[in-house]
């Protein structure tokens, strides 16, 4: 799309239309405004309730003060029920662009018209916790996308994990009750690490595949921007010849999939419970707009039964080796919300919101969901929630639905029914864009049962586990060990230890040993040994390594080496990363060789106590004898370095600062530079003698890079150095 077309689209296209619609109900607070009642009457004070009083006595307040009563009354009713699940979330606006038409499988213009830019609103969420819980807990993440298409709203209400705990919507209350805080004491918050959850999933075998995913690194994402989105359920697409395909929707992040290590996630939950929310906000404010490729996996209707799993079963994914993802579009988030409550909180998604050309399938989980969302939104938002600006389509809404609490729309005329003598608002024809339910023959017996393939719960659980990299497998074992350690009931951890032998014997033995269960001696089910593509997140990585939007802490103290500091800061910014200067105090820090006079130094962004290493992706320490002297005597500074090492982050140091690293983790296995050669060892990049040209030149991020910057940037782009963990180095450091 040309720049001119882009501008036109901003103003009058679909994208501009949603912005204009929201702007028409927005206001900006200004000092020219004067405070009024809800009914527009200006008020002389917002501080004093009308009362009977004298200078020497404060008397009773008067009920007559309707303005004061209005203020308290409005405040008393500010809260609405939080979502029963996915209560904690963060949202942003953006747009969806199609680069390849999918007209062979659908006639939905949002998936066929490559000239369109469709405005979207996306809400990411955790599932278990309440609205005020922490972002970084072990949990599934919601990934809900509302496309405001010209043919009506389309919602993909997905997750960052492609499968689910249950096959049939009737079980949803049970799985949610089991995972939420226990009913007697409302403990624990936002965690599956308790008796009830593990008791339930043991008894309910269809959850097996899903809990293997939630025990993996997928459930502790580094950022909403670095996770995949999956529609999970099976939908259908219909083309203009009336042919149907089954479809799964995918969003794949441009930055690749990255996660925390568990200790980091645990600490962040206390140190910065809003970490993900802030990360999304900060990236968008800095112009580092998060992007995802949008893809579809399709299966023609005639091939529905060609697979060894049921393609309508939400506890199964469609292996990409046999059903490749076809990437046809791109989702970008580029605008933060103006106000959280009317936008992120009041947005209401529903799996039944589908434009013509896209349909549901007989997936028994999907069919239940399509009832549940409408229903729950009635108690959360009231009957006219579809009129709230964030939920309103950009195309006209014309029907005979009327009245109800909070109705905004005023429809003129005498007619509120169809058919009517004026032939007003008749149903649309297909040519006019009516929704198409293609005729399908349905047969069977009426019974509470599903097809036989729904009864297999282990093949894909093994497939997932087999496909993980060795570090990912060890994280799964550690996650089970943590979770089951929190279950006090012997029967719960004992049974779960045995159940894992149905998936992998070694995993079961390791977990049993850690949690005090009986160590199984033989596998209770044969492992088929198969693996599949892109289940390990190490395979879902960008084509070219990047450090864009990575937070890098640069630690300095008085007497630091300014030349190196400036070279690193400037080059990080040029590469799209976000450098933050951290020092023992937030007032000015002076480099070596300058007088300690105001404005001779640099103003740090934070001090060492205010932020922790957990909030950054990498750390760098420039040299300077004075700086080293201070930092090496600071337990907190040493802890920063140790913790970054323990959390497998890239660490860079130059000049005297190399000595700080050897003091912090004193490990013979990690090689450090002691001359003018750049040394990279386990993601630690050092150079002891910095020459004027050591930190110059353009940085191409590649494994074979030789200079300090090239090597350090490459390590940051890797996100974590897992060799440090597998070779037993990180576990030797106290952090
Ligand atoms: C494939 C499995 C499922 C996925 C991927 C999924 C995804 C989501 C997401 C992303 C949200 C948050 C929407 C938002 O940001 O506002 C959500 C909320 C919710 N989900 Fe699901 N869900 C699944 C299964 C179910 C089932 C089976 C039910 C019930 C039968 C259900 C009921 C709900 C309810 C009641 C909410 C709260 C909605 C609101 O208050 O607006 N979900 N789900």
Q: What report would you give on this structure?
A:
With 735 residues, this protein is an alpha+beta fold. It folds into 3 domains: 89-387, Beta Barrel (Catalase HpII,  Chain A, domain 1), CATH 2.40.180; 470-539, Up-down Bundle (Hemocyanin, N-terminal domain), CATH 1.20.1370.20; 551-732, 3-Layer(aba) Sandwich (Rossmann fold). It contains 20 helices and 19 strands. Strands 3, 4, 5, 6, 7, 8, 9, 10, 11 and 12 form a 10-stranded antiparallel β-sheet that branches. β13 (551-555), α15 (562-574) and β14 (578-583) form a beta-alpha-beta unit. The two termini are 51 Å apart. The relative contact order is 0.09. The mean pLDDT is 96. Bound molecules: protoporphyrin IX containing FE. Protoporphyrin IX containing FE binds at residues 83-86, 89, 123, 125, 142, 144, 157-159, 164, 169, 172, 232-233, 314, 347-349, 365, 368-369, 372-373, 376-377, 380.
Radius of gyration: 29 Å
- The CATH H-level superfamily of the largest domain is Catalase core domain
Q: Work out the helix count.
A: 20
| Portion in beta strands | 15-25%
Pfam families: Catalase, Catalase-rel, DJ-1_PfpI
GO molecular function, one term: heme binding
Binding site for heme: 373
Protein name: Catalase
